[in-house]
Each structure stands twice: as structure tokens, then as C-alpha cells.
Amino acid sequence: MRNVGLEYLIADSALYTADTLGEMNDFFWITRVPETLDLARVLIRATAPDLMKNRGQASFISLGTRYADVAQRWVIVYSPEAYRRAIKTVNKASLKQTSAELTAFEQVCRQTFSCQTDAHNALSELEKKLRHTQVFDARIIAQARYGGPGRPAKQRLPDYQTYRIAGQLASRLELHQQRLQRKSCFIPATNQQDLEALSDADLIKAYKDQQKVERGFRFLKDPLFMGSPHETEKIVR
Q1: For a disulfide at 97, which of 16, 62, 129, 132, Cβ 3.0-4.6 Å?
Q2: Are 136 and 157 contained in the same domain?
């Protein structure tokens, strides 16, 4: 967090809490809305399809809202750079998660159940745990079982039946798309409502400039960022 001039306090999303916002009524601020906020997710989901029509071009939309009883302006920004990063991270995470759920589904399908009710219950419990995939064309298959040795006669009725689960597993494409949209967009916010005093474009720039400064400080703190005494002496001279 840092002060920029005497007009605005600019900070990252750690500032954006209901308690903190309520204490900052005496000055203007600019901060990022956490992507975990329910309202942020809803608005990104509603606006991202239009913002992302041209994936190679940045775009934004401005909305007035109220959070923590504070009137403010949110600018939902789509970033092509963030989109390219999101494709890699979201696809990698989705592959890991869907693979784990596929393994769980295959394990259930290999089980044998003594009655249909047990099979249905096992399928229901599995579906409750699935987050990134869904079962379709699910069915319970009965398997005839015979007691005694040898092959049963053609007309012989089975002594009992067992049951297995069959079906297919598919990724939830809408969930994957929502995660991609959420990672491709961000929301800088301000309590400055006057567009002439602070335009949407200036709001975005101010927040991005703050990010650059933070990255610079992280670089300077890196233990690898060190120079030899000889190099330092040259710079001083």
C-alpha cells in the first residue's frame, strides 16, 4: 500500500474489506476488488462475454455499485495478457482436477453391488463430490450370477444378481469458461464518482502503475539482486 500525492490512496486487494472501506470516508482510494467476492464473480460472468469478443484487445466497462455501504465505481477490465496466462493456469488446474474425478468415477464403476439401491446410492454420493465433471448416460446394469461349478444350462435362471454402474464422465465446460473469464479480468474500484476528476482510463492506469511499483520493490528485495563492491564503486563514481 502507498500514498500517491495527497489525492488518492492506492492499494492492492488486501485493502478491500468491509471494515477497511468503512473507515476511509475522508479521502479517495483506488484498490482492486478481490476476485473471490461473490458480487465480483457475478459481474464478471455477466460482462465477460462482451468484453472478450476480441480476445486480442483490452476492453473495460464501468459500473456504479455499493459495497460495505460505500458508494463506489467498479471498472471491469479484460486483459489479453491475463487471458494468455489464464489459459495455461486454468487448463493445468482443470486437467489435474478432472483426472482425479475420472479416477474416482472409474473406481466406482469397477465395484460390484448386491442390490440396485446400493448402486444408486454409490452413484449419488459420487455425484455430490464432483465439482469439475458430471456423469451422463448413467445406468445400473444387472449381472446374472450362478452358483455351483461349470457353465449354467441355457434355460437356467440365475441364482442371484449383482449390479454395476455404467456411464460416461464429461468436463463442465461452463465452469471451465467461468474460471477462464475470472482469471482474464480484474476490477479496480474507487469511491471517486466524478469521471472528470478521475476517468475510467485514469483509474486503470493508476492501479496498474501501483502494481509496477510493487513488482519493482519485490525485485530489489530479491537476494539475487546484488552487485559486487567493485561494481557498486563504479556506479557511485
Answers
A1: 132
A2: yes
